[in-house]
Write a structure and sequence with these properties.
Blueprint: E1 2-6, H1 12-15, E2 16-20, E3 30-39, H2 42-49, E4 66-69, E5 75-78, E6 90-94, E7 99-100, H3 107-111, H4 114-127, E8 135-139, H5 144-155, E9 159-164, H6 167-176, E10 180-183, H7 189-196, E11 202-207, H8 212-220, E12 221-229, H9 242-248, E13 251-254, H10 260-263, H11 265-280, E14 288-292, H12 297-306, E15 312-315
Parallel strand pairs: 8-9, 8-11, 9-10, 11-12, 12-13, 14-15
Antiparallel strand pairs: 1-2, 3-4, 3-6, 3-15, 4-5, 5-7
Helix pairs in contact: 2-12, 4-5, 4-11, 7-8
């Protein structure tokens, strides 16, 4: 089979190389899956660089989220067991963690449902306790993680403010359903949020960016507001001033979604049931902006690493070169 491998850490476009390898052999409690689609996540790029908290042994195949097919023909969502990741024709995954792919979604959409939407659901509902009628601010609202939070916020009855970088991404955020869109490249984010909320600020802020975005969040969070920290796509990890959180009476909530898989896996299953129901009634639908063949995976991961994409890019092994849409 064909599989992308990282033999030496570096930028994805240079570190990833395509090889002909044997199919992986499942270990105890694992199953072999034919990859129908693999969603690209920012951690894939971080793993290529050797900067992620999970560091699989070299060589490894990236790809942490797939829609796959079991040997008996079931369509499932899985997080592949590294080092046999999803940017390949076959992957392995823990049998106990397989989730049914929603019938309402195609392979690429199903592959993009898991990590980003589970993170969004846990962040907004489990950690921040978002309520209908509250104002939700989402940084990087046109990206893969942000777009999921926007849809989940709207489904929960919140008023959603999306912050993006650039006119193209602003258009995507509007299509996703943001009530207010702020282009950080053309507008003053702090002033625009205060204007949009009548000076009150946002009740819940969803931040996958860190850096300057977090600093902006602390200045526009409402009384008893909650800032949910889900990542640092900017590459800059902020150091919060806890005296400021005390004086303004807001909460900073960290979210490491992966911990729920070991600490409380029943909640992950419950969340998937909620997401499946939302997908069935059309309240959420992963924004797959591009589908690329396996041969173009490295270039696609690099674009995600560079922050120039919107929504999600899915690697579809059955696509042929030039057939991406």
């Amino acid at each position: 089979m064909q599989a992308w491998q990282v033999h030496q850490n570096g930028e994805p476009a240079e570190a990833m190389s395509l090889h002909e390898v044997d199919r992986p052999t499942p270990g105890d409690g694992q199953v072999l899956l034919r990859v129908r689609a693999a969603n690209i996540n920012f951690p894939d790029a971080l793993m290529c660089r050797g900067h992620y908290q999970v560091r699989p042994p070299l060589p490894f195949t990236p790809g942490v989220e797939i829609c796959g097919e079991t040997e008996d023909g079931r369509r499932v969502i899985a997080n592949p067991a590294l080092p046999h990741g999803g940017f390949a024709e076959y992957a392995v995954a823990d049998a106990a963690a397989l989730l049914s792919a929603p019938e309402a979604l195609d392979d690429a959409e199903a592959a993009a449902l898991h990590i980003g939407y589970q993170t969004g659901w846990f962040g907004l509902h489990r950690r921040a306790r978002l309520e209908a009628g509250e104002t939700l601010l989402v940084h990087a609202a046109a990206g893969g993680v942000g777009s999921a939070a926007v849809q989940l916020g709207k489904a929960a009855g919140a008023r959603v403010i999306g912050v993006v970088g650039g006119a193209d991404k602003a258009a995507v955020a509007r299509e996703l359903g943001c009530d207010v869109v702020i282009d950080r490249r053309a507008e003053d984010v702090i002033g625009a949020v205060k204007e949009a909320t009548g000076g009150r600020g946002a009740d819940v802020i969803y931040d996958p960016v860190g850096g300057d975005a977090f600093t902006q969040s602390t200045k526009v969070v409402a009384f008893e507001g909650r800032i949910v920290v889900v990542g640092f796509a900017s590459g800059s990890i902020p150091s919060p001033a806890l005296n400021h959180a005390l004086v303004k009476n807001y909460a900073i909530l960290g979210l490491h979604w992966g911990l729920y898989n070991t600490k409380n896996p029943k909640l992950v299953l419950h969340c998937h049931e909620q997401l499946t129901e939302l997908a069935a009634r059309g309240a959420i639908k992963p924004l797959v902006s591009e589908r690329v063949p396996l041969s173009e995976a490295a270039a696609a991961v690099q674009r995600v690493a560079d922050g120039v994409t919107t929504g999600r890019i899915a690697v579809v092994p059955t696509l042929q070169n030039g057939a991406a849409a």
